[in-house]
């Protein structure tokens, strides 16, 4: 196929678009791949559509290879199934809702768990029908609060979503593994650096969950990786190793002390070091037990207060807390009105004495896993201006349970090898490209998807969910491969195989370039041929070729007349070589098929 | 490729779905191609998706062949461009509107004229950039009042829409002709009977317009064709040949007569024949001039009364009137309140004496083209119980203009050859499959799409619009090819090339069928292989094969053991032949590639 720049529907821009925040967005607009139609909503121009379709096709082939079957759901969906799973409400402002002319409620599908579940319920009824994996590549909608970075977080975007259906957990494990392997093949083909991180699955009602992240500084997802082993996890999914119990037989008894004007950890630590200095080492924020109280609102409308006790040198990580609390639970720190309604909580001096379901404040109290049995703490005495020292966990206080939501920090021990090999965590940023997880029976339960098992008994089906965003992948691949002069596509997803430039005004140049384009095309090579004449200078053509980022650039120019050669340039490395015009077709075919 | 019935995500139904109105809808659901998700909104199961994708690909190839370039617009669109063309209002209840979390207005695109116009305005600026044809294959939305007949009139559907952009009318004619030829190739390939009919373009602001209709009894579109020449037109587009002027020098003077209790044409004709019998022939409804008054509401909110004078044997055709009035004009016959507000209109006895912009009732008055100069009529005398006879057009009355909205009837003279060859019209029904028309400068004017011409002067671009509905085509092709036992796909769009049935329980049967499936697939033939074992009888498999409608059915059964043959059946003709199992692969390859 030959695309001629003289007629291709594209215009490159020399200036960055005003609204573009990240390099991939700037270059995709400047190089004429996409245009913004509305915030977070984009038009795919011909070059962009080619890249998108190539990515979709790579995904489709790997899905087909594991026996997944393609179908296609509508984007405009009725309210009822989402009502059954409570997501009509849980999504809050995050989805687009609308009414039809009869006043019936619809939404634009943000994800299709309900529809997949219902179609299997409609068609299948026996264990003999399973396992089943079905998928679609389809347009989805989310009313993001802050659409950003072009295609990286859009409001209309393309998703490949697949679901597996099995009768038992072993089946789900096998389906999950098949998808995981397919995803690895897909991401390897897409040609950018990625990492598979452990993700938090709890909130979605499932068990196992992993994300495929493209390594990228502009990514919205922070993940941590071990400096020593191959552990990597989404921040939400890092499981802090619980502190080992320590003996406390000889520990001094707890004692309350006056600590006036110490409502913050900093002021408390200063006060301790001044008034209660320790022999062996100074007091540190990590010696204090901070108790943070949140007001929770559950999806069913009920409210609750939750206190979290954690070392004073750490804050609660809102994302980790959100993922532990589950979808649809809204939380915010206690405000003045909340404190006023629970007078037994002394703001700034809250301690375990008031916390716990059976204690005066009647607040559920969960402890960070670092608060191990036998550990001693300085914490609030539930009276303004007073703290308790030498308060020992398991002896003097306990919580109603454990919650692992403290911030994860560079240097924290690796949950996998920290104990044995001393590995520590470091954080990095990535773009979530794929997410696979074991949904389990949440949706099958809600929508009553059951099949008859071997004994004629109805059993609930267990599901897996597997998503990749092809439109986001366009931006992520661009982001991961671009350089200072333009886009720089991996061969597998490039909009063309070769960018052929006729550089000059001589008829011979155009005649030779025409011949090369025709011969390459005849061999199945996709050629983007800059055949523009008139005022378009070779310099403009070179700059456009670098900006557009096709992996191989062939320049037919002056050297054709002098020594019968043309230049073949590798866009990524910048390496150039002169190749005889007569053999350049074979040469390029060799490069493309390598 | 081999699709195995044992694992294919499909279930055939023996019973018709309750909500299916037309045969194609019944069979597409029963054969497991589609499922309803909501009224007018469908899920594509794997078999259905394959047919849809094949149709899309046939269209794509022909679009590419005429140099049209594919891009893709969002479905979720901002209000502003549709406001600029007034369509945000004009669409009334016909589109889905919604607000985002910030309260901004959006719609789900019913058609993308505005977006196409704006993207060309964004990228192009010179006559040198034109001509340009761009297209997309994309999901569209219309909030139909009565979604019906499955995919034939859906609320979410797939469209290929292309637009051409030219600097002048000659360019538009060439682009139009290129698309027309491409459409003919597409419809020929899709393998169903169609007719190209003249369509009314006026309301859309353009000039030339044709529709491609699939011939189908279940179609919603009535068109007429000449029994003699190749004239065919949408009912809206039939241009009645105006009556030739006749001499009226010797015509008797008009005279009012008492005609008590004759408010209808029937009662009037009876009265005339009784009280005023003619020598040469009896009075007929066609001798009377009926004046029908409508109340109009324009898109800008203004209202108007419109009277239409037409022969009493014909009614006003609402669709023809709608198309002449233009998009967004709402009309209804005068009601009691309307009559009360215009006392000079004598209901049942309205005549030209009261009608016309300068006459007492101040009602715009348009006449049917059959009301030729010199023709004499019996019509209302504007007094209850009284009519005027021998009222001569051009002598005694005239209208404010002509409007051609009377119903078209079988037997009407053909506008093309009625005068010369005596051709007459007959009506038929069809499904609108494609629509091509010359939009002209309507959208370019509204959205200010101009380019510099050769002389450096800004000129407004002229546009053509060309649409095909691939999802509707699935149903239309099914409708046009099905028979009493099931679907019956043309080879080009069938979900597989061959339906291979292993009929029996012998291992040899399955071994032979396995081999045939593998060898066919190796040759690039798509095989739907019924490899089901267990309780699925050969009879069930045959019925499923007939229902699913793949063009060639190969049955490996008893004859394999007796004489080493298998049966090859043509689904459409029912013809069967026994072919040696050893040579059936070559035989089938020959059929598929024929």
Automatic annotation (TrEMBL), chains A, B:
Record carries keyword Nucleotide-binding: yes
One Gene Ontology biological process: prolyl-tRNA aminoacylation
Record organism: Nocardioides ginsengisegetis
Record flagged with keyword Repeat: no
GO molecular function: aminoacyl-tRNA deacylase activity; ATP binding; proline-tRNA ligase activity
Protein name in UniProt: Proline--tRNA ligase
Subunit structure: Homodimer.
Domain of life: Bacteria
């Amino acid at each position: 196929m030959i695309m001629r720049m003289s007629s291709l529907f594209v215009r490159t821009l020399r200036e960055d678009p005003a609204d573009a925040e990240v390099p991939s967005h700037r270059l995709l607009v400047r190089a004429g791949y996409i245009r913004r139609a509305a915030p977070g909503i984009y038009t795919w121009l011909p070059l962009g559509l080619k890249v998108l379709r190539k990515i979709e096709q790579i995904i489709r082939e790997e899905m087909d290879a594991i026996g997944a079957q393609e179908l296609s759901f509508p984007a405009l969906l009725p309210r009822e199934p989402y009502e059954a799973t409570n997501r009509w409400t849980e999504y809050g402002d995050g989805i687009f809702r609308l009414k039809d002319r009869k006043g019936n409620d619809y939404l634009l599908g943000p994800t299709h768990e309900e529809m997949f579940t219902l179609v299997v319920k409609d068609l299948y009824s026996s264990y003999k029908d399973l396992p089943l994996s079905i998928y679609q590549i389809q347009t989805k909608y989310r009313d993001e609060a802050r659409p950003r970075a072009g295609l990286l977080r859009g409001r209309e975007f393309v998703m490949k979503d697949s679901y597996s259906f099995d009768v038992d957990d072993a089946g789900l494990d096998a389906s999950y593994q098949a998808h995981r392997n397919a995803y690895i093949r897909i991401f390897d083909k897409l040609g950018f650096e990625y990492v598979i991180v452990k993700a938090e699955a709890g909130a979605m009602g499932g068990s196992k969950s992993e994300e495929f992240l493209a390594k990228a500084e502009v990514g919205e997802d922070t993940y941590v990786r071990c400096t020593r082993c191959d552990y990597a996890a989404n921040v939400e999914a890092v499981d802090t190793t619980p502190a080992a119990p320590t003996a406390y037989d000889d520990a001094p008894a707890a004692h309350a002390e006056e600590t006036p004007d110490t409502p913050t950890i900093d002021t408390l630590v200063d006060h301790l070091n001044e008034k209660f200095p320790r022999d062996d080492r100074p007091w540190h924020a990590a010696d204090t037990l901070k108790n943070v109280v949140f007001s929770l609102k559950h999806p069913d409308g009920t409210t609750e207060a939750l206190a979290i006790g954690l070392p004073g040198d750490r804050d609660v990580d809102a994302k980790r807390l959100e993922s532990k609390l589950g979808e649809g639970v809204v939380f915010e720190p206690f405000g003045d009105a909340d404190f006023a309604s629970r007078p037994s909580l002394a703001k700034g001096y809250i301690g375990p004495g008031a916390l716990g379901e059976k204690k005066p404040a009647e607040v559920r109290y969960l402890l960070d896993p670092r608060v191990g049995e036998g550990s001693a703490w300085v914490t609030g005495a539930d009276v303004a201006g007073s703290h308790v020292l030498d308060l020992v966990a398991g002896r003097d206080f306990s919580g109603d349970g454990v919650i692992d939501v403290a911030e994860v920090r560079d240097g924290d021990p690796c949950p996998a090898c920290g104990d044995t090999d001393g590995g520590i965590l470091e954080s990095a940023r990535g773009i979530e490209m794929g997410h696979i997880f074991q949904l389990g029976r949440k949706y099958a339960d809600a929508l009553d998807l059951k099949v008859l098992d071997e004994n004629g008994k109805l059993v609930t089906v267990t599901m897996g969910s597997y998503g990749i965003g092809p439109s986001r992948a366009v931006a992520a691949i661009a982001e991961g491969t671009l350089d200072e002069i333009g886009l720089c596509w991996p061969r597998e997803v490039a909009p063309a195989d070769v960018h052929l430039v006729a550089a000059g005004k001589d008829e011979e140049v155009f005649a030779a370039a025409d011949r090369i384009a025709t011969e390459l095309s005849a061999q199945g090579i996709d050629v983007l041929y800059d055949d523009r004449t008139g005022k378009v200078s070779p310099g403009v053509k070179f700059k456009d070729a670098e900006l557009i980022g096709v992996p191989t650039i062939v320049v037919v120019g002056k050297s054709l007349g002098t020594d019968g050669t043309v230049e073949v340039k590798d866009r990524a490395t910048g390496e150039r070589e002169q190749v005889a015009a007569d053999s350049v077709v074979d040469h390029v075919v060799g490069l493309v098929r390598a």
